Amino acid sequence: MHLRRRSLLLAAATAPATTAATAIPSHAAEQGAPRERAPVVIGHRGAAGWRPEHTAASYTYAVQTGADWIEPDLVPTKDHVLVVRHENEISQTTDVASHPEFAGRRTTKSVDGRAVSGWFTEDFTLAELKTLRAVERLPSVRNRNTVFDGRDQVLTFQEVVDLARKLSRTHGRTIAVFPETKHPTYFRGLGLPLEPKLTRAIRRNRLGRRECVVQSFEPTSLKRVAAQRLGVPLWQALGTTGGPYDLVSAGDPTTYRDMMTPAGLARIAAYADWIGPDKSSLVGTSVLADAHAAGLRVGPYTFRAENQFLAAEFRRGGGANDFGDAFAEYALYYGMGVDAVVTDFPDLAVMARRG
């Protein structure tokens, strides 16, 4: 193993155990280097490694095993209700294909400049979506999760907020919701903008800075939320190639790579509190240090346990879907000083955080 990686792993393993901080920084009050605290564990779509994603079972299991925040991806229905699905195309995450009454709604659309075929939430009312049931999105990778297929309905964002508060009471700690606006430029073009519905929900539920963080890959979406002065932190998600679709569609050549330069990070810090880069963006770069210098916290994504999602040095013998040394990967990133991890396996992230 490379000497630097070995040193980081040793430092993480010997660090004293700390209590996870669920307090969420306020942008206006948190300029400068982030304070020392244990990394936040964010259940990516719940506990997607163990249950079909974006279901009550997935969110509940994430919190039961120690997640501090749970992440709902937001897309709208035809009647403009925010529901939680990884994508607006739902053939991979629901049993819609087995419903003959909806066969005629299969279509092909251009979403963020890419042709996508299937069934789309914006073509269904909430009542119609409620007749569907969730299924495992990656059955060839996580066939163990298919035993839960057909058990859970599609949830609304309001139902996730209600569930988070119920779980907070049950477990005696604040569970935050971490909603992502999915394809906001696309939906705005359809007359189904995400931000007004989201900001109304935040106000209606009186979600404070300890209970909600809003994320998006599109900076204009975050700026629309910021303009509402809700007092909740904002998180700029960052891809590895190209640029945010809102900028691309406006003819702005800014790429994600540009956004991760010191100058780009300073611009992000003017409206957001966090960045969420792909975890690979932090290896062998100064992005983490530069972001901290700009007063931003950093939460890389997405941590998974299967070999195919791990760097070569963390893989173990066996197939691509067998588990590798996920604990060593968490130790590496905790040792780097990240402020959060976005993970399909929050139980493993919590265990690794304890050292």
Describe it.
It contains 13 helices and 13 strands. Mean pLDDT is 92; it is low at 1-23 and 26-33. Helix 1 (3-14) packs across helix 12, helix 2 (56-64) runs parallel beside helix 4 (157-171) and helix 12 (326-336) packs across helix 13 (346-354). With 355 residues, it is an alpha/beta fold. Strand 9, helix 7 (219-226) and strand 10 form a beta-alpha-beta unit. It is globular. The protein is 30% helix and 13% strand. The chain starts with a helix and ends with a helix.
Task: Summarize the entry for a quick read.
This protein has 355 residues and is an alpha/beta fold. It has helices at residues 3-14, 56-64, 126-129, 157-171, 184-189, 194-204, 219-226, 245-249, 256-259, 262-268, 287-293, 326-336, 346-354, and strands at residues 40-43, 69-70, 73-76, 82-84, 107-111, 114-118, 176-177, 180-181, 214-216, 234-238, 274-277, 297-298, 340-343.
- Mean of residue pLDDT values: 92
Distance between the termini: 20 Å
Q: Structural class from helices and strands? A: alpha/beta
The fraction of residues in strands falls at 5-15%
How large, in whole angstroms, is the Cα Rg?
20 Å
Q: Flag low-confidence runs.
A: 1-23, 26-33
Strands side by side in the biggest sheet: 7-2-1-13
State the total count of DSSP E strands: 13
